[in-house]
Amino acid sequence: MKFLLDGGKPSVAVVGFGYVGSTVAAVLTDCGLSVTGIDTDERLIQEMQTDYCRFNEPGLAEMLRDARRDGRLELTTRYEATRQADVIIITVGTPVDANRSLVTRYLESVCDSLAPLLRQGQLIILKSTVAPGATNGLVRELLERGGLRQGRDFGLAFCPERLAEGAAISQFRALPIVVGGCDDESADAARRFWTGALGVDVDVFARPEVAELIKLADNSWIDANIALGNELAALCGALGVDVLDVISGANSLPKGDSHVNILLPSVGVGGSCLTKDPWILWNLAQEHGVRMRLVETARQVNDTMPAYTHGLIRAGLADLGKDPATAKVAVLGLAYKNNTNDLRHTPVRPVVEALRADGAQISIYDPLIAANEAEAEFGVKPSPSLEDAVRDCDCVAVLAGHEAFEGLDFTDLARRVSMPCLIVDGRAYYSKETIRSLQETGFTYRGIGR
């Protein structure tokens, strides 16, 4: 079949305009393509149409605003807009349930809506994370219910999302794109689309199952790597050794084409990918009689870190002669990652819940997160400012190291808190000079493995 994207600049529809979809659309419009963003969340679309972007990704709001004003980006809740698109990119969420099973109902709903609207020559690109076999199975079968046939009438390929929050726009412009086509023509069309749109390297694989597995393998590796850092942190904490020194030294060893690369420990692993994708891989292995022990162990290790952090706070308060049951703790940074406003599976939440169960008085503050969202997630009304959050507190726990917290004036802080006061570093990775400075001011410092 001849794809409509042959020659010229293809028009694009992005279905699912959340964090991933809006980032994809922003970069494609910046590269000169016309994009229609589609989402059934009317409030989200209305926000975007008034130039408000709820996702805290550097440059994203400005790119979306400029694209919309220049006419390169249109936003709608109506799937009918996909009829005019040459390429349809699906980026809806695929979470896991309480049993760690993949939830595909949102993806199925999208495919059901698209099926009767497809026309010959369109290329469908799936970026939503799925279990291997879903693109050429579930997705293809649902799309074909509209009467057209994949391979004969429309193309279908899986191209995993591999972006890191906080650097997604720059990464999307530079990282190789992985393509797994349901047939050779689909794979070649996807390759030509991404090469023409972004000018990046494209790695094409013969089957979509390979591309589906690549996404799961990437995130399982990251999760296992972080787990090693977290276990080293627990050991270093017990030995009185700085884990950052250990990791820095270990990472200087050349290995293969690069170096050893142990990732940094922290209060815990959150977000929508690392907490989910390893379990998708694990479930797949179970179905085929394979037990992936490393995957399950890494997940278990990383899930213990909020409790480890809670223990640091309790022990640190006790060392200062303060009762955790009556102490006031200020938690700065609520997101699962530095410099984002993403609360999905944030490890900060179980720390706050454990402190509240102790009886501690909790104040929370995160300048990147809307007050109503923070209160809904944590059950605590956030303080309006950092100064209000830390007033008379016995412990300041920096659990997301946002740039807004980098310039903390510890001398000024000492006048606002209840001294002696504990500083707990959950993800700020303070330098030795900073630690000496706060200790000279009279604070006690505790870090993850430090």
Proportion of residues in helical segments: 40-55%
Content of β-strand: 5-15%
Shape: globular
Largest sheet: 8 strands, mixed
- Unreliable segments (pLDDT under 50, ≥5 consecutive)? none
Radius of gyration: 24 Å
What is the residue-averaged pLDDT? 95
**CATH level-two architecture of the largest domain:** 3-Layer(aba) Sandwich
CATH class of the largest domain: Alpha Beta
The CATH topology of the largest domain is what?
A: Rossmann fold
Structurally, the number of domains stands at 3
Q: Biggest sheet: strands side by side, in what order?
A: 3-2-1-4-5-6-7-8
Find the count of extended strands (DSSP E, 2+ residues): 15
**Total helical elements:** 17
Structural class: alpha/beta
What is the CATH superfamily classification of the largest domain? NAD(P)-binding Rossmann-like Domain
| Assembly category | single chain
Distance between the termini: 60 Å
Q: Which SSEs are present, and which pair or pack?
A:
Blueprint: E1 12-15, H1 19-30, E2 35-38, H2 42-49, H3 60-69, E3 73-76, E4 87-90, H4 105-114, E5 123-126, H5 135-143, E6 155-158, H6 168-174, E7 177-181, H7 184-198, E8 202-205, H8 208-239, H9 243-250, E9 254-255, E10 258-259, H10 277-287, H11 293-303, H12 305-319, E11 328-332, H13 348-358, E12 361-365, H14 371-378, H15 386-390, E13 395-398, H16 410-416, E14 422-425, H17 432-440, E15 444-447
Parallel strand pairs: 1-2, 1-4, 2-3, 4-5, 5-6, 7-8, 11-12, 11-13, 13-14, 14-15
Antiparallel strand pairs: 6-7, 9-10
Helix pairs in contact: 1-3, 1-6, 4-5, 8-9, 8-10, 8-11, 12-13
